[in-house]
What does this fold into?
Amino acid sequence: MKKVLVIQEDIIILKILERLTRLNGFDCKAIRSLSALNIEDQQTNFDFIITDILFEGIAPLQFVAQVQEVLLHKNLLIVTNMGQDKIKQEIFNLRGITGFYAVPIDLDEIEAIIQAY
Amino acid sequence: MNESSILILIGFVFAVLVIYWISIVISVIYRRNRTKRLQKIEMTFAEIVSGYLYNDPNDPLTLTEINKTLKNVGIKKQNKNNIQFLIGLMIRTQRTILGTNFYKLQKLYSQIPPYRVSINKISSWSWYRKARGIREIYEMNQSQYLDEIFKYRNHRNIYVRREAQIALVVFLGWESLRFLPYLKRNMTLWQQIKIVEKLYDHYPKPELKWLHRAYKTERLFGKKLLMRIIRKYELHAETGYIVDNLNHEDYEVRETAIYCLQTFALSKSKISYVKVLFEDITDPTQQGQLLNYLYHNSEMDLDFYMKQLNNASDDLKLSIAEILWNNGYKEKVQEFYYKQYPAETELNVE
It folds into this structure.
């Protein structure tokens, strides 16, 4: 079964994304911060990671870099409240980012990407 | 002071301390329970919204179940604080979602409690509750209450009329500009920005018919608002309106016009018109800003700059001389410099 990891501090977006991925046939792990991960998760190669970039105690770019370094994955989607053009540009400069969606988001776009996988 | 009175005093102080400690304990317990309750409501609401937007065909979530679940976590008429918290969650959620799901949410909100809490707030005496009620209605897109809100567009309280005007923009979009000439009270800069942003978020496609009609407005805030709209939507064909206001008699209107103009590049004919208007501007600072714009956005026009060098105020002369100096007209600047002194004056140069 294809696997997705959703990391969102906002519980409502977290639950919606969890539900969306599950209904599309993915095995979803939904967490509110990186500290909720266990060793097994670090060995899993996720098909998608859908994450926010705004977390306490860590800069957005550093967070993305950390996720890319620590977690095995094939695609990385960013869904965040922090949608300024500058941030978007800097995130894409990091490479390996599949998509960047700033709030307000059209969930159909995310669903289309997941279904096309 | 004898022994017994000291004992009474100690007893009294001790009693006060005990009461104080007990109240702290009660407050801590209350806050802990309250936080737990709010977290539970948030979690339940998240489950409901996610279940409603992506309903599992094998285990469908019905409206009866949704209403029952909400009631069980404390969303009842008598618990006003819980209801207010839920409204906050509803608005937050709707703001984060676009597309078909946005309309699905709108439908959900019309079917779950609180049914009429926001509209009831509008009839309250307190301006704060009134403004809050209007805001909740437009944030949750309950357009059926538009007529109720419409009455408050000229309300004496700035916050109430501000929210009512934003509601008109949210519900009517570009058509709301129709009311601009009839607004009686001033609109602050903050409000203008908010209106422009709301219009852009909800109606990204411009409808010029309404914009052209609004040009008739004589209100200063109206002119400023329209220029900001032209700037936000990058309406290149409408820059004439901004240019026409460059020499307006009001300082702030001119300021807004210069600010908005900086987003656009103008055609040659418009640039020459701006140069004509340049001389009508009475404020040297604003002239300086416009000069800067002209320098960066048009070709070098020696005649114009020489004319300004001889006629403009002293504050501007240095900037004009700098432009000429840096663009290969050193000798013109030198000539102008020497011309200021009579021929017989002994210059302090070797």
In short: The CA atoms of residues 249 and 281 of chain B lie 8 Å apart. The longest helix of chain B spans residues 3-53.
